[in-house]
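Wed. Picked up where I left off yesterday with SGNH hydrolase-type esterase domain-containing protein. The coffee machine is broken again, so keeping this brief.
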Amino acid sequence: MTQNTGTKWSKTRRSGAVFFALVICLPVVSDFAQAQEMRERRTLFEMMFGSPIRRDDRMYAPERNQQQRMRRPPPRDNRAVTRPPAPRKTPSVVQMRTEKPGPVAKLETARRVLVIGDFLAGAMGEALVSTFGSSPAISVDVRSNGSSGLVRSDYYDWFSNLPQFIKETSPATIVIMMGSNDRQQMVIGDVKEKYGTEAWLKEYERRIDALITLAKRQQVPVLWVGLPAFQSPSLTADFVSFNRLYRSHIEKAGGEFVDVWDGFVDEGGKFVTTGYDVNGQQARLREADGIGMTQAGKRKLAFYVEKFVRRHLDGATPDLTTLDGSNLPALTSLPALGIDAQQVRTQPISLTDPDLDGGDVLLGDKPVAKFSVVPSPRERLTKQGLMDAAPLGRVDDYRMPAPAETAAK
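Structure written out below (tokens, as returned):
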């Protein structure tokens, strides 16, 4: 009885131990099975040549605790933080620009340039004033009327106003630019002559000569600036004829014609709104109406006139002086300092005056025996490339001084 009971108890203990072992090994088996499932089957190609190294994102997925630690914001510091002041904003590239010199005070003896004409003369004169702003000996006076010309003397009479302007300014050069408003009918006596007729052209030429005659009374150079091209083809064609008249009449009177036509047309001779400025850069020269001038166009007009004005007023600028013996500073010889005080200076030798060095002949000119074993200094220099030693104390004397001389110094 007792034996049967013990046997049953031992069987029960064995069953419990087996069950407990199975419970413990279940997670291990499940994990192993899961790991086996995560492995991919290899193909025949991979079995023969080996499988490439692959990375399974599931094997390297971060744990949940690690994700929480990564998302956790850093602890806040309740202590006050002093932020450094923001640095000043400075440009990365500093552009060094040379400022244009401002206008200078004109001299009392400054020579004046009188500019007369219509709106184009006013634009050109404005730029001419800026051009000569830094020249104290040249002054520019502009007397222009935008709508004036040679045709409507009832509106503005240049023949009566020009003598008064000359009297007020006493110019050294007179510049005339007008004609852009003259394509209209002209009153000749009691007759209104239509533009372009023979009588109109004859009277217009007479008025050109009359204006030039008034300007020449001052006995100064007179310049007539030609008209530029305009956007209107009819205006451009008529102004070509006007320029021919201006050139022929001013040159016949001994003046000069300033041709500006090529500066405002292209290679084919057609009007251009944008072209090269005085610096050779592309710039807008004309206004949108095809008549007026921009600032670049004004400077270009003044550039043409400036060359003629400077040629006539050459020498008017006081900063151009002649350097001669009268205004050169005195040449002084300063005492030698340091080691230079022990050197013996030799004056330069002039090739045209050998007496300055105490001799009267050049190297190798001393007479020598006709037959001599010792070569002359000239032969040594020309044939062997050797030169006699420099005289003692000369700057090219590189011989070491004797010990007695060094001790004495």
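Quick read: The domain at 111-312 is CATH 3.40.50.1110 (Rossmann fold).
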